[in-house]
Amino acid sequence: MTLVVAVPDGYGAERRYALDVVLSEWLGLDWRLVHHAGPGVRITLADDTSDPAGCVTLPDGLFATAEDDWLTPTALPPADVPWVPVGTTFEGPLRADDRLPVLHGAPAADPPSRLVTADDGVHLHVDVLGGVFFLITRYEELLDAPRDRYDRFPAAASVAERAGFHGLPLADAYVELLWAALQRAWPRLTRTPSSYQVLITHDVDDPLATLGRTPALTARQLAADLVHRRDPGLAARRARAVLTVRRGDHGPDVNNTFDFLMDVSERHGLRSAFYFLSHNEVRAGAPPCHVLGHPWVRDLVGHVHRRGHEVGLHAGFGTYRDPERTRSELTALRAIADEQGVRQEVWGGRQHYLQWGGPVTWRNWEAAGLDYDCTLGWADRIGFRTGTCREYPVFDLEERKPLRLRERPFQVMDVTLAGYLGLTPDAAMDAVLAVARECRRFQGTLGVLWHNDEVLRTGREKRWYADLVAAVTAAG
Ligand SMILES: [Zn+2]
């Protein structure tokens, strides 16, 4: 069964990409593109013998933008994004009284009273394809957007935050809406099944707390354990680790939580990914410490692989617009991985500090030979920066073409919870479980980043983390 998608002229590469992700990648449907005078998008079924023949229509919103206004604020959703009820009962995660924000395709001043109507065909009153494209390409981040001190696009500047949907995978909700309409028109259509998954990743910025530290710096860390963290046990373990390091034993190092992390993942049948940073700035102003030059860290790369977990790249600070450093850091990691006997079909990772510079970073990753990126979560919020809990191939908005590189789901970072959001442990647990529920609702993937060092030093932090992984993987 092949869908025939009739679209107006213009934005050919962009329309084809959006259809490819939504229909081929996510729903697993066959389709072909034809052009018509419009208005809007009209989907029919090839060789449809029913009478009357079914059809699904959608408004053209983002792709009706004048070429001169493309990638300008004129193409953004309205300042006051309307939330409109679905209005029709379907099978699937959306209920009739659920409201969804309409990014494109409906006038904000006069929004429709419901998102789906059926008479003489099934009609969607929201630009599903433009909305998915807008979200998964991070369109708004290419405009003259505000940046934080690490040159990152803050969640606070996003349409998701302004319209209040950063906790909702809106692209996935749009796809469910389209699927429901297609199934209403042609009940015999079948889609690719998907299921809820958990993807746990660990950025290895600082594998050993003793690495690159002078005695004075270690003394300052000990003082911080006692005064700020009020944790004499941690200070004692740190002091003991400093002594054992002299004998070449890194086992007791307070940052050496790797076996604990792998134990927790294995307990729940998960394969963690460890993304290794090449150089770390352990002291402001001092030359970066060559983390991957340390023999214990090189062994760790092999150890992770031998335990069945994934090794990946944590591209260094400031490399997010630098194709040469991206490539050379990957080459260095791959050389160590080879030396350690690491064999992997797929290589990916994440930018340090979640720095990301529009399609340039993606383009550099693809050029370096990487298969996937997992950078696009918010630093200052938890939630759905790309609007989806599904993996997808990315699109280069500047060169107007799809790339082979894929983006993996990532919604929760450890330091966001306690640091940026200042949540108590209980509130943090509730916040992550709310994101997990959305991923489960849309049968997608919850992506979690937990550093080996940041929020995992004390027994209480370790228990909290183990409880979190148990909770998000529990049968729901
Ligand atoms: Zn990092």
TrEMBL record:
Pfam families: DUF7033
Sequence ranges assigned to domain DUF7033 in this UniProt record: 125-209
Domain of life: Bacteria
Record's protein name: Polysaccharide deacetylase family protein
CDD domains in the record: CE4_u7
Gene3D superfamilies with a match to the protein in the record: Glycoside hydrolase/deacetylase
